[in-house]
Amino acid sequence: MDSSTLSSLSVGSFSSSSIGDSADLEANLPLNDRLKVFKTSHFDPNAYVTSKCQTMNEKEIRHLCSYLVDLKKASAEEMRKSVYANYAAFIRTSKEISNLEGQLLSMRNLLSTQAALVHRLVEGVCIDSLPTGPEDSAAENILSENKELSTIENWLVEFLDTFEVLLAERRVDEALAALDEGESKVEEANERQTLSQTALLSLQTAISEQRQNLADQLAEITRQPSTRGVEIRSAVLALKKLGDGPRAHALLLNSHHQKLQFNMQSHRPLNASSGAAYTATLSQLVFSTIAQAASDSLSIFGEEPAYASELVTWAVRQTETFAILLKRHVLAFSAAAGGLRVAAECVHICLGHCSLLEARGLALSPVLLRLFRPCIEQALNASLKRIEQSSAALAAADDWLLAYPVAGTRPGSTTSLSSISQPKVSTSAHRFNSMVQEFLENVGPLESLQLDGSTLEGVLQVFNSYVNLLINALPSSMDNDEENQEIYGNKIVRMAETEAQQIALLANASLLADELLPRSAMKLLPLQQTRGSDRQSRLPEQREWKRRLQRSVESLRDSFCRHHALELIFTEDGDTNVNAQMYISMDGNADEPEWFPSPIFQVLFTKLTQIAGIATEMFVGRERFATVLLMRLTEAVILWLSEDQTFWEDIEKGPNPLGPLGLQQFYLDMEFVILFSSQGRYLSRNLHQVIKNIIARAIDAVSVTGLDPYSTLPEDDWFAEVAQIAIKVLTGKANFGSVDTSPTASISAKSISSVLSHGSN
Questions:
Q1: What is 338-389 written as a DSSP string?
Q2: How far is CA 64 from the centre of its chain?
Q3: I need a labelling partner for 164 at 20 to 30 A (CA). Which of 7, 121, 192, 743 fits?
Q4: Helix (H) or strand (E) holding 493
Q5: What single-letter DSSP state applies at residue 416?
Q6: What are residue 576's DSSP bridge partners?
Q7: Are 614 and 690 in contact (CB under 8 A)?
Q8: Which residues does 493 contact at the CB level (< 8 Å), separation at least 6?
Q9: Pick from 635, 636, 658: which is nearest to 647 by CA?
Q10: Contact between residue 281 and residue 342 where contact means Cβ atoms under 8 Å apart
């Protein structure tokens, strides 16, 4: 590779890096700072593109184009927000300007009158001061002026008569032409000065009066309910031609408002079930009227900012009136009754009609969303409350037996439920999942309201409430007078008495949190499949939501483990099944001990084996959850032993020290736990370390007495082999000839020695 090639590659690499860094830097700047370069008065688009693209390759140019498109969208959105924020001030200023123009017009008329009076006074003074001239010349001037006055008077009389007829017959175009002709007469007389100021002022006043009469008649036409749309548009256009555009535009909008109010009075909802039909009819009426008003305004007045702003303000006011009416007749009742489906359907219909106006520059959706949001949130909360109450009622009657859902379809859904797509859960869990699915389907069409966060939070809360019901269904140490039932917070929950029923509680919670609820939550995200940026931004929220679901399941699992651990450790009388005396007393017996794991650890192994068998059937394909459950239950028992201060005070500081036989038995118990949890694949690093620490602490307790514990303990293989024999005996798989392998039998040191060829000491 030559030097020129290396040079070109270096320049290209540097250019790409610089452009990428610059784009990243600009992307982090506020929008105003990013737009400064385009706002300067000397901005040159060609120079800007040349400076950016001179050293770019195709990929970098595409990146720049994408950046500029995003900047354009952000700028348009910023402008739209700014316009909406200043509409009220703009309209108020426009009205003040219109009032000022009217005052200026009145002032001009007053000044014209004053000027005419001054001219009349001047003419009178001039006539009195002029010397007497030739009589023939004066007579000629007077005859000429009288002749001109006679002509104008005749024309004015004819004009007034004709104009009166035109007004009576509503021949607007001809009336406008007549007014134009009158204005021409005034202008001609003014230029030629053939009339005195008094006559000229009188002529102007007569024409102005007729102009006002025509304007009043046109205004009255627009106020008549029976006037057709074509006639209204013609009247407004004529009024605009008369020079009164603001009044013409206001009358146009007012005529549409009157017709809308008249048509709306004939529509009322018959009952709650007709809310959607009523909404569709009313919404179409309102937004079609707004669309027609926008079309009329654009065709007559064009895109002049003052009229466009007045149109937007009027449209917002009509939308607010419609939204308030709909809330009073439909949404308020639906929200109070928890009718989320009806409320959502109504809002969806309105937003659909409203979106058709966006092509005309009328973005009225924010107005609807602002007014509808409280009702929708109320309906959402009422629906969640109903789910919570229904779940409590179902938990009172649930037998906690897992089953597939009933074949067929869920009410309100078109998705078939079958054992292939749905896992096995109990009755209350099936119904809970069905209610949540229906709830999320109802919220799904309301993506414009951006209710994803509050909806998922609501689902999380009702799931936590359901998990609390499952926790209350676990047996407690307190006696209960009601058979298989107990009252928790005014809620009756049927007890899960057997281990299979208790594990079914865990299956309900884990399957809902891991599969069913996240799958249902996808109904909230229909647009994320097409808008990748939104999808990426919401992924962290979804992950955090799933983690919170898992934490709720973990609370149920911890309650399950706590219940069974306490059941193992404590007797019904409140005593403990494991204490220091059971190990200390072994060295005081004359008889040779029988080496076998202590009873509590035998029961622990048996219980874990039973739970593992049940969990294997219930958590098919989800063995990880069963493994963690066994792991946490084993840890609960061993951690209690490691933290029992009474146990360790007796071992380390008691009057009778721990002897070599007690240490050997304790060592065997711990190795037994390590072996069966390892074979069951639920030996965690934490559990293994805790057991090692416990063994080391027991050895240290013996060392303090002056004995060498390692000289009295057998080899590690001995503990492993005895623990393995115990596992086979407890599972009924042992076969040692003359050795009794029944689960109730114990193995003496001699028996084990005959089998393993090891001594007990």
A1: T-HHHHHHHHHHHHHHHHTTGGGT---HHHHHHHHHHHHHHHHHHHHHHHHH
A2: 32
A3: 192
A4: strand 491-494
A5: E
A6: 570
A7: no
A8: 392, 395, 396, 469, 472, 473, 485, 486, 487
A9: 658
A10: no
Distances 502 to 399, 465, 572, 614 between C-alpha atoms, Å: 11, 18, 20, 10
Neighbours of 264 (CB within 10 A): 17
Contact 673, 634 (CB under 8 A): yes
Summary mean pLDDT of the chain: 76
**What string of DSSP letters covers 188-243?**
HHHHHT-S-HHHHHHHHHHHHHHHHHHHHHHHHHHH-TT--HHHHHHHHHHHHHTT
Angle at the Cα of 166 (from 165 to 170), degrees rounded to 5?
A: 120
Contact 724, 675 (CB under 8 A): yes
409 strand-pairing partners: 416
The first and second tokens of residue 744, run together, are: 């109730």
Q: Which residues of 279-313 are buried (b: 16+ CB within 10 A; e: fewer)?
A: bbbbbebbbebbbebbebbbebbeeeebbbbbbbb
User: Cα dist. 652→236, 657, 695, 705 in Å?
Assistant: 104, 7, 13, 10
How far apart are alpha carbons 77 and 75 in whole angstroms?
5
599-602: which pairs have CB atoms within 8 A and are 24 or more residues apart?
A: 600/568, 600/569, 601/669, 601/672, 601/673, 602/726, 602/730
Which backbone phi and psi does 482 adopt, to 5 degrees? Answer: -85, 135
Look up residue 10 and give its two tokens.
């270096």
Q: Looking at residue 170, what is its pLDDT?
A: 66
Query: Which residues in the chain land under pLDDT 70?
Result: 1-34, 109, 112, 115-164, 166-170, 172, 180-182, 185-197, 199-200, 203-204, 267-274, 334-339, 406-422, 445, 447-448, 450, 476-491, 525-539, 590, 734-761
Distance CA 364, CA 293 (A): 14
Q: Are 552 and 626 in contact (CB under 8 A)?
A: no
Count of CB atoms situated within 10 Å of the CB of 34? 17
How many degrees, rounded to 5, is the angle at CA 642 between CA 638 and CA 648?
A: 135
The answer to whether 440 and 521 have CB atoms below 8 angstroms apart is yes
Assigned token pair, 440: 């999320």
Residue 739 forms beta bridges with which residues?
A: 736
- Mapping DSSP to helix (H, G, I), strand (E, B) and coil, where does residue 409 land? strand
Q: Please write the tens of the pLDDT for every residue from 483-533.
A: 334 444 446 788 888 999 999 999 999 999 998 998 888 877 654 444 444
Cα→Cα distances 165→62, 168, 399, Å:
70, 5, 92
- Nearest Cα residue to 641 out of 708, 580, 715, 717: 580
